[in-house]
Design goal:
heterodimer, A: 320 residues, ABC transporter involved in vitamin B12 uptake, BtuC, two-stranded antiparallel ribbon, 6 strands, B: 344 residues, mainly alpha, globular
Chain lengths: 320, 344
């Protein structure tokens, strides 16, 4: 299991090296600090959610509602700011609580009612998006306080924005949780086999509940970052982000069936996707085509890691 | 009475009851709700979703999922549109055949990666969702299909009434969709090859031991699903006329939602395409009725819909679970009684 993952990460590192070499030969601007920060900032909300999604998928669940939760949180912030006398600080807190409650809603249905997470979060994907539209209807809300916009648009230390620090901090935190703590071990065990976990005395329902609440809160946080970066919210904020986020996690070698994956793999996949998009943008390749290339990369990387180059055939134990 | 019916039949009956309740509820809320126009409106808008939900069901039955379905519908609608724009005299049968073949081709690509290369379906179709869409963007060359360049027979086709009872019209697009669903339903319940989809989905190991070629079955499911998505693409073109590169965006999750509401088990092996059809009708009916309900603003539509899907699935699971418990208890008590008679 670990052996397969190491092979995968080798492939990812090689792909990343290739992308960086090609990109830097295309443009001198590419390796500049400004471009590197810019490349992160354009998708920072997605990659932050991808970190948390790694844990959810390793646990053999999925959260399709993340994009809608980002939208709901951003719209709730806009609504609270415009329609109520609440200050922006309190509005942020309320949005994070909304994320917690939304995650708990998913968690209750998945962990305690025993419904498949694919179905539950598909329903809340529609429902959360609906609530976001109820709040802002077809308006756009803008004119947030200056300090709030500054969080998303200017550097916190030098040119590095707050969101990038948040990403690094969350990565470090989740790395420790997943790979260095009992909670992380349980995440892997439950993802490998829920029955085994139950027999081992693990409270799997509580564990899943915590992960879904975490996923909701991180999504709500990412939605706020989006509002700060763009400086405006509309009903369709972060629409369709869920599939991009899941693509990144799966590209990072996390098994869709749970039990296999690492934070480092997800980080590699994030770097590849961001640098690849950046390089293609330098070549004037448009967004839809960029997504297509990443789609091909996703499929080929899964096949590539299965190839036993010595015998040049599909390895049996990984198949299926 | 209840114990004689199969769980699937109970489910379909329950769905029909819910459908009836929804209609009754809105008819007390919306003036002039119950009319031929309601039927005509819902039946013509549901045709495309019914085909896609059926396509999705075929794949879900085998424990897989097809997330690329929206991109296939979009591509087929666009390609068919540009074919008829360039050759306005093309016979309609050739045009339909073209749509279906193109859809099957995309289904083969998905099927190959899932069944032969053994890549999980969610990964393959997540990839082809993006890939097919980007091929469409490249192919379209920043142009769109416009209604003005399409022949009138094609534009008129979806709303042609085949049968009229008062103001009630059986329109061609809905007739096509219902006919397809019925054919697939009969095939799935009566034909050996189609039964294999259930076998593979409910227990792959047992299916393999029974001599079923799993790879071939899964491949067939994807190709058939592609064919239906192709036909849906044709109807999409006929209904909307104007096709841009975003046609069919988001259909993948809508089709899964319709199938799941219709009682198709997301883990494969159980579910009826008739259920998926009723699921699609239910979702469409609620969606279009909420717009006309003055008590809530139209912006509540999606929020209510999400809640209802969650409710439907929860109810379904809980009822099916207690039904299973009740039946086991019932058959146990019968055996107890028999055992008591035999051993005095």
């Amino acid at each position: 299991m670990t052996k397969g993952l190491n092979g995968w990460i080798r492939v990812l590192v090689m792909v990343l090296a290739l992308v960086v070499i090609v990109n830097s030969s295309l443009s001198e601007e590419y390796l500049s600090v400004r471009n590197q920060i810019n490349l992160f900032q354009l998708s920072i909300e997605k990659v932050i959610v991808a970190l948390m999604m790694t844990l959810v998928i390793i646990n053999a669940e999925i959260d399709l509602s993340v994009g809608s939760m980002m939208g709901l949180s951003a719209c709730a912030f806009g609504w609270l700011f415009q329609e109520t006398s609440l200050s922006a600080e309190w509005a942020i807190l309320v949005c994070l609580i909304i994320g917690m409650l939304g995650g708990a809603l998913n968690g209750v249905f998945v962990a305690y009612a025993g419904l498949p997470s694919l179905v539950v979060t598909l329903a809340t994907l529609i429902g959360f998006r609906g609530l976001a539209r109820v709040l802002v209807e077809d308006r756009g809300i803008t004119d947030f306080p200056e300090w709030f916009d500054a969080i998303g648009q200017t550097g916190l230390i030098g040119p590095v924005p707050f969101s990038l620090f948040a990403f690094l901090l969350l990565f470090a935190g989740l790395y420790v949780v997943l790979h260095k703590s009992g909670f992380g071990r349980k995440t892997f065990v439950i993802g490998t086999s829920r029955d085994v976990a139950v027999f081992a005395g693990i409270d799997t329902a509580r564990h899943k509940m915590i992960l879904f609440i975490g996923s909701g809160m991180v999504s709500a946080f990412a939605g706020l970052l989006y509002a700060a970066r763009v400086g405006a919210v509309r009903g369709d904020v972060a629409f369709g982000f869920e599939l991009d986020i899941i693509t990144m996690v799966l590209l990072g070698g996390v098994s869709i069936f749970g039990g296999v994956g690492s934070m480092f793999g997800t980080l590699m996949a994030i770097l590849i996707v961001l640098n690849l998009r950046n390089g293609m943008a330098l070549l004037n390749i448009t967004g839809h085509i960029q997504t297509g290339v990443i789609g091909v990369l996703l499929i080929t990387s899964v096949i590539a890691t299965r190839l036993d180059l010595g015998r040049f055939r599909l390895r049996k134990e990984n198949a299926g | 009475m209840l114990h004689r019916l199969s769980p699937q039949t109970i489910r379909i009956l329950a769905l029909l009851v819910v459908l009836l309740l929804v209609i009754l509820f809105f008819s007390t809320q919306v003036p002039n709700y119950l009319s031929g126009r309601l039927f005509n409106r819902v039946s013509s808008s549901v045709a495309i979703m019914a085909l896609i939900a059926t396509a999705q069901t075929l794949v879900i039955l085998t424990r897989n999922i097809d997330l690329s379905i929206g991109s296939v519908v979009g591509f087929v609608a666009f390609a068919t549109g540009s074919l008829i724009t360039d050759n306005p005299d093309l016979h309609w049968t050739l045009l339909v055949a073209f749509s279906i073949t193109l859809g099957m081709f995309f289904g083969m690509i998905n099927g190959f990666f899932v069944a032969v290369a053994k890549v999980p379906a969610i990964i393959v179709t997540l990839g082809t969702l993006a890939l097919f869409r980007s091929v469409l963007v490249e192919f379209s060359d920043a142009k769109s299909i416009v209604t003005a360049n399409l022949p009138t027979w094609l534009i008129n086709f979806p709303n042609t009434p085949l049968l009229e009872i008062g103001t009630l019209q059986l329109r061609a697009s809905f007739a096509v969709a219902v006919a397809v669903v019925l054919v697939v339903h009969i095939a799935l319940s009566r034909i050996r090859i189609a039964r294999k989809l259930y076998a593979v989905g409910s227990n792959p190991e047992a299916a393999e031991m029974a001599g079923i070629n799993i790879g071939l079955t899964v491949f067939t499911a994807f190709v058939l699903s592609g064919a239906l998505a192709g036909l849906a693409g044709f109807l999409f073109l006929a209904r909307f006329g104007t096709i841009t590169v975003v046609a069919g965006l988001g259909f993948e999750l809508k089709s899964v939602a319709a199938a799941v509401v219709g009682g198709v088990n997301i883990f494969g092996g159980s579910g009826l395409v008739i259920g998926a059809l009723i699921g699609a009708i239910l979702v469409d009916l609620i969606d279009s009725s909420l717009v006309r309900w003055h008590l809530v603003s139209e912006f509540w539509r999606e929020a209510v819909l999400g809640g209802l899907i969650l409710l439907a699935v929860t109810m379904d699971t809980l009822v099916m679970r207690s039904l299973a418990v009740w039946r086991t208890a019932r058959s146990n008590s019968k055996e107890d009684r028999r055992a008591n008679v035999q051993s005095p």
